[in-house]
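Sorry to interrupt, but I need a hand with the structure work. Please put the record directly below this note.
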Amino acid sequence: MDLCHIPATREKGWYLALMAPNLKGPNYAWLDPSRLYCHPQGLQDCVADLLQPFQGDAIDLVAGVDAMGFILGAAAAATLRKGFLAIRKAGHLCVQTAAQPYTDYSGREKVMEVRTDAISPGLRILLVDQWVETGGTMRAAIELVERLGGVVAAPLCVPTGVAAICIENSEGGKWIQERYKCSHCVPPRLQPRFDQHQ
C-alpha cells in the first residue's frame, strides 16, 4: 500500500494492511507495524481507534512499554494532552526504579523497570504497547504500575486500561482482557488470522 494513499472508506483497522510480514526468521515478531507509523492518516486513525473505548474515562497518565509501545503511547498521550511515562527494559534508567522479571513473546527472560517517582497512589494509567502476543510483557508492566499504587483498572471507578494494535487470544492475552478494560485495532472477523499469525 502506498504511504500516501488514503482509502475512500476508512473502516476500523484499514491501516493494518500497511504492516509487513517477518522476513528475518523466528527471533523477530511475525508482523512489523512500523510501516503503519510512517503513514500520517494510518497512524492518526490507529491512535483514534485505540482511544475510542476510553472516551470520557479519567486518564491521568499514558505509559508506553519498551520499545515500540513508546510510539503509540506518546501519540496517545499527545492526543489526550496527558503526560507520557516510558516503561523500560532494565539497565536504561539512571534513577531509582522498581523492577519486574518477565518472559517475552520469544521465550526470553528479561527484566522491566519503571522510575519510582512517576506513579503515585491512585494515578489512573493507560498502558500502551504495540502488540500483546503471549501477554508476558504487558502483565509485567501492569504489575509494576500496580505495585507502585497506580490504577490500571478498578471496579469502583471508571477504569483505565490496556491498548495495543493487537491483543491476541492467547492464554496471556485472555488473562489481560478478562481483568482490564482493553482496546485494540483488529476487527473481529480478522482476529483468528492474527491469532494464527497469518
Residues 19-195 form a domain with the Rossmann fold fold (CATH 3.40.50.2020).
